[in-house]
Write a sequence for this structure.
């Protein structure tokens, strides 16, 4: 039985006040019955199972009721090991946070967040892998995950952390596999932002906070998982590097893009499944 944070219970009580049940809220958010969610979950804002090499990723069965659903859910049978749930939330902290909160009403025990991250370190290259130590809040969704009046809640620049044990298992697993594959691995100090277009004018401010990567979801997602009573850690793939003038807005070569996709396709599944397996033995 999950140990929900008192604030999570308050969120559930708020829904109940207006006629919603926990089971109904979970299914409305996820798009599938809560019992279809397994104890190990992969959470991705944008990536889908088709982006991974089938021989590495395994077989994915689409569970959502319509194509390109608001939240897309697959049941995945890996080449080896325990079946997992794969969820695509779509991009941004609000939609990802709702899914992360809804997982507290399912069998989910361990969640690995995966996605692309922008590097803010000249030493990072496209295709490198990052495990974040924490994510600095630059999003608005995190405001709703704190106690007290909304007008008084301002978590901006505060740090949200992944589950320490799961994150360390993930880093140790990634370290071994990255060494085998000749891929650089980094510890991340991430900034979660709400905008891609407007971020570039704020890079100096983000760097001043000590961050070396930027993405959009994990500051809120880490908080949501903690409230909901399950463990979450994150695995990022470097998709761009603003400090090398290789940003999402331009400057990346075709070869760099291809290498990043190759790492995602073949290496990410190995790390994810090995982490779940090692975590299950601990």
């Amino acid at each position: 039985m999950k140990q929900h944070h008192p604030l999570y219970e308050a969120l559930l009580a708020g829904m109940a006040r207006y006629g919603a049940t926990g089971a109904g809220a979970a299914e409305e958010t996820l798009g599938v019955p809560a019992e279809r969610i397994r104890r190990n979950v992969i959470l991705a804002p944008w990536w889908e199972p088709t982006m991974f090499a089938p021989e590495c990723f395994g077989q994915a069965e689409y569970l959502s009721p319509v194509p390109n659903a608001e939240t897309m859910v697959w049941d995945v049978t890996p080449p080896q090991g325990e079946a997992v749930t794969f969820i695509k939330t779509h991009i941004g902290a609000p939609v990802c946070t709702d899914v992360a909160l809804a997982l507290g009403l399912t069998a989910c025990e361990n969640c690995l967040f995966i996605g692309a991250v922008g590097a803010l370190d000249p030493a990072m290259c496209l295709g490198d892998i990052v495990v974040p130590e924490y994510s600095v809040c630059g999003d608005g969704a995190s405001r709703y995950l704190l106690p007290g009046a909304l007008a008084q809640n301002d978590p901006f620049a505060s740090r949200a952390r992944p589950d320490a044990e799961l994150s360390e298992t993930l880093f140790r697993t990634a370290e071994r596999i990255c060494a085998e594959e000749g891929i650089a691995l980094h510890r991340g100090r991430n900034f979660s932002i709400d905008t891609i277009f407007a971020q570039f004018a704020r890079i100096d401010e983000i760097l001043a906070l000590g961050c070396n990567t930027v993405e959009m979801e994990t500051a809120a997602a880490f908080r949501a998982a903690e409230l909901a009573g399950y463990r979450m850690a994150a695995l990022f793939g470097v998709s761009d590097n603003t400090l090398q003038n290789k940003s999402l807005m331009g400057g990346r070569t075709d070869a760099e893009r291809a290498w990043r996709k190759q790492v995602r396709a073949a290496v990410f599944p190995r790390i994810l499944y090995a982490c779940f397996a090692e975590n299950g033995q601990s």
